Amino acid sequence: MTIDRRILLQGLGASALALAAAPARAQAPANVTTGPELYAGEKALYEEALKEGMVISNNTGPTWANWATLFRVFGQRYPNINLVYNDVGSGVAVNALDRTRNRPQVDTIYYFGANGVDAQKRGLLAPFKPTNFDKLPALAKHPAGEWFTIHQLEIVFIVNKKLAKNVPKSFADLAKPEYKGNIVYLDPRSTGVGQVFTWAANFAQGGSYANLEPGLKYMEQLHKGGNVLRVVGTTPYAQFVKGEIPIWVNFVNDGLRAKFMDGMGDDVEVVSPAEGTVAAPYTISLVKNGPNPNAAKLWLNFILSDAGQALFAEGFVTPSVPGVPLPDAVKSRLVTHAKSTLLDLDQSAAQLQALQSGWAKAAL
Description:
The protein has 15 helices and twelve strands. It has 364 residues and is α/β, with parallel strands linked by helices. Mean pLDDT is 92; it is low at 1-23.
């Protein structure tokens, strides 16, 4: 079972709104014709891409994950390459590509990782290994490059310190009686973020993909102890900013947005749990038989280059390339994780039904 990106967006919110105006900036690279290459062969690839003149980037909405800034900087670096984009949702994008597989109308496709696995199994993708591909962990990529992770999002506790006297630092803390009626999170039956939270809780309690029992017992403890204020089906971002939620268990970018972009400042603390967290992978692919293959490769290389990865970090999403250099002003606003485990897409998908039904029995 795959997870539609629109469902995930319910859990994530429109978290990148106005991120292009953020004061912490990654430095944009110079025009490709005047500056040094970002990787070997970049200028030669640009010359080939010029013959096509455009790239069609499927499902990269400008208000999500700082795509608007990547679009702008890509256009500055590569003059006369017209970048066209849309935002239709992961599942919709894959199904539309399947219908047009004999004559695709897009060059690249971006989605939550499970949808990338689905598209690969349908035979819709072409192998391509962009710059920095070899630096990605094995779980973050298809071996032949038919999909690869370009950024990820971790589960954290987003705490309104005006409402929660003490800030929980761990899953163990979160279960304490003092947090009765404090916790809000997204429903794992309908949202990706709720599923990733359940996996994170399970691993924190010593569980595994094959053993869900520790995590389900923990979720039961949270609910029976009365610590859960409510479980919701759509993002409660506005309610959190209004001061209606003490502790929101969610992906990291919404917490950083509330802290740095929407005026909550030091009233918000974004906590990565001490036992460790789980990160959800977001992936992209080269479309098989797409109309502009060289321009598509230029775009994919830029996205996974150090420059592109730094722009994702500017938008509060975690770069997938380990150790990518970041300006201090950008790095200082990100969250440090004691341990972060990238979600295994195959193993989590195989256990999704068991996780959802087990959660319903434990929590409802």
